[in-house]
Amino acid sequence: MNGESRSSGAPGATDAAPAPEHHTVVIIGAGQAGLSASWHLTQQGIEHVLLERGTIAHEWKDGRWDNFTLVTPNWQCRLPGYEYAGDDPEGFMKRDLVHDFVREYAQLFGAPVRENVSVDQLTEGAAGGFSLSTSAGPMTADNVIVATGGYHRPIIPASAERLPPWITQVHSSEYKNAAALPPGAVLVVGTGQSGAQIAEDLHLEGRKVHLAVGGAPRAPRFYRGRDSLDWLDAMGVYDIPVELQPGGLAAREKTNHYFTGRDGGRDVDLRQFALEGMRLYGRLKCANGTSLQFAPNLATSLDYADSVAESIKNDIDRYIVREGIEAPTEARYVPVWRPPFEATELDLAINEVSTIIWSIGYRADYSWIRVGVFDGVGQPTHTRGVTGIPGLYFLGLPWLHTWGSGRFAGIARDAEYVAGAIGGALGGSGAVATGATVAGTAKVAGAAKAAGAVAGGAMAASAAPDVAGAPTLARQTVPSAAGA
């Protein structure tokens, strides 16, 4: 009968919903960020579980193209208690090897991962802690680490709706290889890491490529005898807290530099591609049927990208002089091509363009988190992953603490800090582990002192969106290594 409890058969007894599954810590996401936190919690003896909506590290395969290669050298692939142990420390892991690297890490310490379990809602519990609605049933937790990364919803601009239906449109996260696309020319929109590298991938496969160039900076792959990232690591650039960056927390919206680790690593020189037949344009302004309009800013964008690469070299030069390092000299880059005019129109039909690849970034989507920790644009507010809500943490975000937070080694350090904060709150160590502190106060101070110069180079720069009307706070690229 409605409104009455069903009897279990025992006098006075009623059926009650089973108590939700409870954990001391729930980690949402089992990419390298979540797994790093799990390793530290395991070392502290703190009970926890990782909930992964897919399979461990699945984004490395699902969201990258076949020829994807890390831009960070293998020796920088370090996670807590685990690091690259192959015979090519200066090389760059390909997509499938990165996927295997992270999965083997989970197996190494028996991470308590529950795969294919999605979290649909996270709220604060009525009696403290947190309540989670999951595909495996309700759960509660004293602490929650959100390790889902910062790249959630691929951006497709509104102008895409005005294109003819015979045009195949894919986001960069869906691109796999040139052969999977229909015959014909391809327009790539956006030149962050993904857009520039996908344009190169298509170009090397012999496809006719049109490229709408955005405002992303580029970086030299090698300079004066070393990988530029080796130099920047030695300079302490990865260790400067975001609060000490010029502009402070605004650094979190900066666009990654484009270069590549493919075939042993090299620069991505869009000017050279133009010499070889790639058609370059400025920022995409609008589309109307088969007619696309571009801003006349190609030359400015190319010059800006080159200036950033050269400023990184300037920073390295100063470091070499300051430290008295013996290093070979190297001639500076000279542009191999300049646009003879600004091409502002492209007719897709006349130029036989069959496919457009949108590589203009992602929007963060935390709509499933019903806890008041977000700013006016939907980004979590935190200090080094620790929010103002006791027990709620974020991990694996670009620039969570430093520029290095987007790389394996930086993620490892951030995870140590967050796990130490949890341990301290639970009465374990009583303090954050000392290893979680930034590597050397003097090193950070010295690097931060040079940050004004570095801001124009290694730390550049907030770029204009690659499509008119695209949100300036959108993440512009697939990360080289971020929490998945």
Question: How would you describe this structure to a colleague?
Answer:
With 484 residues, the protein is an alpha/beta fold. It is built from 10 helices and 22 strands. The strands form 6 sheets. Strands 1, 2, 5, 6, 7, 8, 21 and 22 form an 8-stranded mixed beta sheet that branches. It has a 5-stranded parallel beta sheet with strand order 10-19-11-12-15. A hairpin with a 2-residue loop joins strand 13 (222-223) and strand 14. Helix 1 crosses helix 8. Mean pLDDT is 87; it is low at 1-13, 429-464 and 471-484.
Keywords:
single chain, 484 residues, alpha/beta, 8-stranded mixed β-sheet, 5-stranded parallel β-sheet, 10 helices, 22 strands, globular
Secondary-structure map:
Layout: E1 21-28, H1 32-44, E2 48-52, H2 59-62, E3 78-79, E4 82-83, H3 95-108, E5 113-115, E6 119-124, E7 130-134, E8 137-146, E9 153-154, E10 168-171, E11 185-189, H4 193-204, E12 209-212, E13 222-223, E14 226-227, H5 228-234, H6 270-275, E15 279-281, E16 284-288, E17 291-294, H7 298-323, E18 345-347, E19 353-358, E20 362-363, E21 369-370, E22 392-394, H8 408-425, H9 441-449, H10 451-454
Parallel strand pairs: 1-2, 1-8, 2-5, 6-21, 8-22, 10-19, 11-12, 11-19, 12-15
Antiparallel strand pairs: 3-4, 6-7, 7-8, 9-20, 13-14, 16-17, 17-18
Helix pairs in contact: 1-8
